[in-house]
Amino acid sequence: MSTMNLVVFPENLEHNFRLMQQNCPQTEIAAVVKANAYGLGIKNVIPALLIAGCKTFFVNRLSEGVAVRSLTDTATVFVLDAFIESETPQNYKDLKLTPVFSTIESLYRYPSEQNIAVRLDTGFNLAGINAFDKETTMRALNGRSVSFLMSHLACAERPDNPKNKKQLDLFLQYAALFPHARKSLSASFGVSLGKEYWFDVIRTGASLYGSTALPGSRSAAKLTAKIGWLRWFDAGESLGYNDNFIFKKRTLVASVLVGSGDGIVHKQGCFVDYRGQLLPVLTPPATNYLPIDATSVADCIHVSDEVDLFNTEYTPDRLAVDAGMEVGADVLIRLNSF
User: What's the pTM?
Assistant: First the structure.
């Protein structure tokens, strides 16, 4: 049983969704809620997004789609990794979910399906139908009506990367072949590349949860944990495995009751927030312990006090930078099993 406590702020989720709508008024804003809504919990996130006006959701797995459908009767729910197991188009119809054809094999397996959703791989190179093999792809799509066509940008976080334009150009080639299909290329970071990348639907994930990809967004959650142990150490003493950390001065160490086994990303260079004051992490965590320097709050900190591992001030994005990661979504998504 985890000692962490996750608090989700529905009002911030609503704010972020509406802010994206305001920034891209001519495009539908859909919500990506894969990996249990980026670790924040589908049951915590979906109701807030429905209140904000979200009508379309994207998940990766069938089980996630079922969870979303249990919370809304009317929204469209796309399942990206459809037909990986033995499920059939009829299974999706019965569940009122929309499968996305992401492999050539699934297209050939169900050749009679029409009005289908298709995911192309235009350079992400992890999932989707190989758009570079146009002959094979178009043979599989011959005679099909496509109602939704999508792809995924690989380098949208780096606007100057020429691959963005190459992916756009390739996607446009297919878009011209299916003029009646609704189209989607951009997720959160793709928005900043310009309107030509937006198409009909923007699949926003990181921005919903407070990423700097959306200026003005608010962190959607905080994660707290308890102090389990306090002890003073003198200069020259060591901390943790293999004596890798040697104290250079007298220091009060507080062990937070979380660690690598809890999915956190904190390491030396990161912080936790104790009542508005950032306390530095001293070493990488053990399985269930995270040592922090509590010297500056020695007069008030106690065992069983709580610290915030991230919050609306020390945001997941700030933590991600300190941890040497890409974006705050990478921090959150590790909480998927929480």
Answer: 0.92
